[in-house]
Amino acid sequence: MTSAGRFAPSPSGELHVGNLRTAILAWLFAKASGRDFLLRVEDLDRARSGAETEQLRDLRAIGLTWDADVVRQTERGALYDQAIQRLTSEGRTYECFCTRREIQEAPSAPHAPQGAYPGTCRRLSAAEREIRRASRPASIRLRSEVTERSVEDQLQGTFVGMVDDFVLRRNDGVTAYNLAVVVDDAAQGIDQVVRGDDLLPSTPRQAYLATLLGLPVPEYAHVPLVVNHDGVRLAKRDGAVTLDDLAAVGIPAARVRDVLLESLGLPAGPLAAALGGFDPATLPKDPWVWITPQT
Ligand code: GLU
Question: Which residues fall within 8 angstroms of residue 113, CB to CB, at 6 or more apart?
């Protein structure tokens, strides 16, 4: 299998310039290292009808190309089932009946990092589980044997973060992001993960899970987010931030692409022309403030 990088948007709405900048970076990282570039639609949750079409249209409009058909997570349930079955047969999962509120209110386990699942359901007896099943469907959690794990990141260096008994399958039957992303990246031959640095805290969990499943841990690069003028992560409410919004005020997609490339210290123009000057070591490390460009 060839090695590949990827962009993996959730089709919950239109992409904004922050998402587009991350997509450009993922493309540049992949192409500059001789990898294929793949697109995966992460539609297990919060998918809005029509959003995928809009997202692919916008990615094409800024010049992104991908080297295989788009993959959708809702079509890959069998792969996720297999992974969960494997972990379960190894005794590495357990059923959890906790509500969100019970988790919040539970005393945390000694030495457990803040925000870690407190382990309430980890030691339920078979009889207790039987009783709980009658009142509430279970989620499936990983029975983790570590509390933290370190990962290497091309931009952030060594990052040590929490690994707890995180959810693999939610109690409504939906596969959790952390499981799906690990299974998909490996199955698609993705050995380079470039994404927003808001996902860095989840990365130790994913690297640990990959190791348990006997899968290679990809190379990571977590890139700075785009923020509004208050320094807050860019969102739809921040004015003209999607290609549609910007086109409506007279700013075409090619101009948006150019502004995004220039924010990375790269020359304006087609993406392929920026490849020659692309060097991960010289990328800006701070969040980038979006200001609507002049027409
Ligand atoms: N689907 C996730 C998101 O849009 C990205 C997941 C990833 O890149 O690993 O936030």
Answer: 147, 148, 162, 164
CA–centroid distance, residue 253 to ligand 1 (Å): 23
pLDDT at residue number 139: 98
Specify whether 236 is catalytic: yes
pLDDT (mean) for 161-167: 97
Q: Which atom of ligand 1 is nearest to the CA of 6?
A: 8
Pair 41, 16 in one domain: yes
**Residue 94 in domain:** yes
Q: Which amino acid is at 145?
A: E
Pocket test for ligand 1, best of 175, 195, 220 (most atoms within 8 A of CB): 195
- State in Å: Cα 10 to ligand 1 middle: 6
Q: How far apart are CA 86 and CA 92, in angstroms?
A: 9
At 141 the pLDDT is 98
Q: How many domains does the chain have?
A: 2
The token pair at 224 is: 């700075």
The catalytic position among 113, 236, 270, 282 is 236
Domain contains 204: no
pLDDT digits (tens, 9 = 90+) for 206-236: 999 999 999 999 999 999 999 999 999 999 8
Is the pLDDT at 249 greater than 80? The verdict is yes
* Ligand 1 centroid to residue 187 C-alpha, Å: 16
Average pLDDT over residues 157-169: 97
Neighbours of 65 (CB within 10 A): 12
Is residue 152 classed as helix, strand or coil in its secondary structure?
strand
Q: Bridge partners of 140?
A: 95, 169
End of a domain among 121, 145, 178?
178
Read off the pLDDT band of 1 (50, 70, 90). low
Distance 177 CA to ligand 1 centre (A): 8
Residue identifier of the C-alpha nearest atom 6 of ligand 1: 8
| Pocket residues: Cβ below 6 A from ligand 1 | 8-10, 42, 181, 195, 199
